[in-house]
Each structure stands twice: as C-alpha cells, then as structure tokens.
Amino acid sequence: MQLFIGGACAGKRDAVTARFPTANGWRLDAAKPFSDSQQALVADTPLVITGVLEWLSVALERDDNDALRQQWQSDMAALCQRAEELNAPLIIIANEVGRGIVPMQPEQRRLRDLNGWFVQDATAQAERVWYVRHGLLQALKG
C-alpha cells in the first residue's frame, strides 16, 4: 500500500494519477464500513481510495475511539492482504489537517484526531508514504 498525504489542493490526486494512470477509484462512503473497499479490488489493477476525512466524519457520532481504531486497523490489514493476493496496488489519498488553525468546535478537533490516528495506522501498513505540498512529493517512508 502507498499513502499520499497533503493539504487541500496540494497536488495529491495529480501525483497519484501520474504514477497510476490505469487505476480504479473508490470513494469511501460515510454510511458504509472501510471493509467495503474490498469490493472495488480488481486483479492487476491499482485501486485509489479517497474520501477518508468525510468517511471519518460519521464516526463523530460514536464515542469509542479505541474500538473505531481497532476496526479500521483490522479492515485495512484485510484490504492490504487481499490487494496483495490480487497483485492490485493499493493507494490511499488522505488530507493533512493537523497543521492549520485548531478549530474551536470540539467535534472538529475530534475529527482531526481521528484523521491523525487513521493516517498513523495507514502509515504503519504502508510500504511507501508520500507527503505532497505545492505539487512536490517528499518520500517519508520506503
């Protein structure tokens, strides 16, 4: 798995498109579990997953951070394993939201926490991690 992270309009999508021009896309559905991403895997075809922040916003209704993390860690591990079995490169595009102004609303601060934990867990699973800023890529891992 590869993770591309950066701020809004930083060039993440362009960087991924340039590297994986034949990739299929999957936008996470806020009403469905992360594990549903597996249905988009196709043998020998890269899969780009987007919509992480919006998907995490539904988790604001729950108050069990540890259970949430355990679930998406398990789902992510299963997705990575299945992608490897199918020789389908897996790419996640995530937003960096921890470098800006800290919001006053508690739910918005929690969303940033959830996003940070998700990105940490994705980084742990990823073979390569890229930080994208101003259209420039910096390899952080791999």
Structure commentary:
By secondary structure, the protein is an alpha/beta fold. The chain is 39% helix and 22% strand. The chain has four helices and six strands; from the N terminus they run E-H-E-E-H-H-E-H-E-E. It has a six-stranded mixed β-sheet with strand order 2-3-4-1-5-6, sandwiched between helices. A hairpin with a 2-residue loop joins strand 5 (128-133) and strand 6 (136-141). Helix 3 packs parallel to helix 4 (106-125). The longest helix has 21 residues, at 65-85. The chain is globular and about 45 Å long. The protein starts with a strand and ends with a strand. The mean pLDDT is 94.
DSSP helix fraction? 25-40%
Report the count of strand segments: 6
| Count of discrete alpha- or pi-helical segments spanning 4 or more residues | 4
Structural class: alpha/beta
Classify the beta-strand content into a percent band: 15-25%
Which sheet architecture does the biggest sheet show? 6 strands, mixed
Q: Give the low-confidence spans.
A: none
Structural Rg: 15 Å
Bulk shape: globular
Report how far the terminal alpha carbons are from each other: 11 Å
Topology pattern, helix = H, strand = E: EHEEHHEHEE
Mean pLDDT: 94
Q: Biggest sheet, strands in spatial order? A: 2-3-4-1-5-6
